[in-house]
Structure formats: C-alpha cells, structure tokens
Predict the 3D structure of the following.
Amino acid sequence: MNVASWQILLQKSLAAFVNSDSVTLMRFATEAVDDGRLNHDQGQFFYSFCLDEAVPDDHPVREIAAVLDLSWVHSELAPFYPKLGRPSIDPELMIRMLIVGYVFAIRSERALCREVQVNFAYRWFCGLSIEDKIPDHLCAGL
C-alpha cells in the first residue's frame, strides 16, 4: 500500500469511530489486513518485558523470596562440583525449584520442570528470565 491508500484508510477509520458505524469498522479492519489473517511473516526483534512486573505483589513466591537467603549455597557446595566434564546445574536453581515443588505440591520432576517453564512467578522465584532454559528433569537430579 502506498501513502495515499494509508491516508484514505486512516480517514475512513476516524470517520467510523466518530460515527460509531460498526459495518465501516469491520470493513476497515478487513481491508487493513487484506484477508483477515494476522501477519506473522516476521517476528518481533526486541521485546520490552519485565518479569518482575508480571508477578503479582501478593503471590506466595514473593513472600518466600523475602525471607529466603541462599547466598551460602555456592560456597558450601563448591567442593562437590567438578571443574571438568559437562556443566553442572546451578545448585541454587535446583533448591529454588525444589522449594516451588514442595510449596505448590508439584509431585514429579517432569511436572515441576514443565510448571517452571510456563509459570512466570516460578521463573521469577528461580532467578530465570523468560529466555532461560529449564534444566532437564532427567539430568537435574531433582
């Protein structure tokens, strides 16, 4: 579409809003997307998303996080993690995931990994971003 076509569509849409004409609005909406389908040709390059804002202030994970101090975990467990071999799973992440499992009665490792994968509050509590991968339940030793 050229600029003139967009201007005409914009004028039609503004007139439709002023007149509250639903038929005109529907015509405008279908003309704007051609065949009525959403355009998914190109994904969004950048997202502005704050996981902290997605977790409600009254969610139980916020109360737990306020009193939980796991700063000692890495230094205490460091001797048990080898320097060679495949990378280990962060022990603090494992403990946080286990706490989620116990508090929210998630009984299996698979279910726990699946819940942490899809639940923003659990991700936030575990210190994961929306892009971080969840440990594999078979390798995590949960």
About this structure: The mean pLDDT is 81. The chain has two domains: 1-43, 51-140. The radius of gyration is 24 Å. The longest helix spans residues 3-19.
